[in-house]
Amino acid sequence: MEAQTASVGGAPALGYIFDTSVGAFRRIFGIPRAASVGEPFESGFSMQSAIVLGGSSTALAMSREGAAAVIDLSGQRPPALVPIVGKARALYSSPRGTAAAVLTEDWAGLLTGMNSGNLQVAGLVLNAQPIAASVSDDGLYLMAALQDGSILMAGRDGSRNPIAPPAPVSQVVFRPGGADALATTADSRVWLIQSGVLTQIAGPEDGVLQPVGLGFLPDGNRAVVASSNGVVLTVDVRSGVKSSASCLCKATQLEPMTAPGVFRLTEALGQPQYMFDGSSLQTFFVPAAASRGIREARPREPGRGPEE
Questions:
Q1: Confidence band, pLDDT 50/70/90 cuts, at residue 107
Q2: Rounded to an integer, what distance in angstroms lies between the CA atom of residue 13 and that of residue 236?
């Protein structure tokens, strides 16, 4: 099965990445194994950090002063400021990018309607700052990994359901379109969470070592786990069938690209960008980005292919 790609101005693209050195986004043009990183472009909002929402062309960003905004990366709509209580400290997306969260010191805003330009925000009071979190695609729940190692499921309806894992939790992520989730614990084990019950689906015996990222492939049935040693493990949560690949790199994340099933494993733009292609279950790299200044954003990018 061939990998699917997104499109920017008619040209194939893998998605967008945030360049922290200049506080701007860049597009990755092309397809797996034939892609290049574009120039940074202006978004109209001063960004200290930002995330792309799931597999969309919408981003959530926060400024150095603690403001938050929804950014339309296609340039069709101006940035939309998010009404929040306090100063933004962390940003999280749902798996498909249909919902997101902005966390302040003791408050979380659950966001929906970002992709349609009809932003809605529902606030939740939090008693602790999570070390990691995820939002359900319907925007009804925030799952948070707390500093004491436990998990909290907080609902837009005011519900708060604690989950006690067998070891301290470091990462959580919802399943696309549902309420099930994944979690990793400090002992390098991966858990499927269903109705508050944790079932181990992978561990050190499968090559998991200091996991740095979690996710699902678009079908929602196959979990993806990236370890710091560059091993990417795929697990079918129904059958338990596993497959692994390695980028021969030091992975630091599992960031979903706009192209379905493609994830970025590394962050440093001055080096090749290693990625995982969920359609072929293989890794590939994109050449290092050129050091260039920010240019003006345009609604449509001229058609162009990847650099040779």
A1: very high
A2: 27
